Amino acid sequence: MKLNQTNRIYRWAAVLVGAAIALPSMYAASGGAGGNDVQVSTTVTASVDNGKRMPPIDSRDVIVRQGNERLQVTEWVPAQGQRAGLELFILIDEAADARLGAHLGEVKDFISRQPSSTAIGIGYMRNAGVQVVQDLTLDHARAAQALRMPQGTPGAYGSPWLSVTSLMKRWPVSDNRREIVMLTDGIDRAGRNGQHLWRGLHLNPDADTASLAAQRTGTIIHTVYVPGNGRWHRSYWTATSGQNDMTRLSAKTGGETYYLGLGYPVSLSPYLNRLDKVLSNQYLLSFSATPGKKPGLQAVRLNTELAGVRLAAPDAVWVAGHQEARR
Predict the structure, then answer these.
(1) Which of 109, 179, 291, 324 could form a disulfide with 220 if both were Cys (CB 3.0 to 4.6 A apart)?
(2) Per-residue pLDDT tens for 167-188?
(3) Closest among 206, 130, 124, 126 to 161, alpha carbons compared
(4) What pTM was computed for the model?
(5) Is there a contact between 201 and 238 (Cβ–Cβ < 8 Å)?
């Protein structure tokens, strides 16, 4: 009897030892403790209320969560000095009202204020594409000279969401921040998806497609409301739907949207001055994320316990799959 008990004890001990040896490799294979974690990078904008002073923000102050799991922050640096590189496209809707011409000087002033590390491109959205009139350049005077009056018509197939998506698809990959400023009313004049522009409030799925492309490519999109030419903006529902799509796109990509009612803004300068603050208070964040079986977008949440500080970042980031993580 005692011999049988001793044998059982030995057998259980062997099982426990085997489990102790196997668990670390199983844990690593599942991504725990950084076994197969992949590095993900994104741009974060920090802000405080007007009149408040931005406090120093340390990597320990930044909380990144993937589901219920808190992820390890591996890099948190200001987008300054050698890390200040920015590629900024200013896109103007060809359907914009001619009154935008009175504000092009304000846009030129905004361009001239940008630091020397910012490359600026100018494009006009028309026919579901973008006519790039100035490629990305560090010559800000040259970029400003490329601005012109909008044509007042979006072409036969006018959609600002398809236009911005087409630009992101052909934008070369680099280590710099990527951001877009869209001057538009957000109205899809192509009448896609079986939704008539006069049938009340709706959300345009093409705006969601644009946000997915932005998250996939790490592009932040800021939107500025300027009414378009013709009858479209006279419909409350159509104009409001356009603004809602603008707001949704900017929020999902970590950008900002600017408008005050449905009328033409008296000046664009307050919006562009706000953008100056946004671009000068950005950080480069890297963290370890757990890959899925396939590469794809994964939702992340970002916050801080610093009083009065708000962090804005894309709602989702691109995470490599298990196979890519092993390479």
Answers:
(1) 179
(2) 999 999 999 999 999 999 999 8
(3) 206
(4) 0.85
(5) no
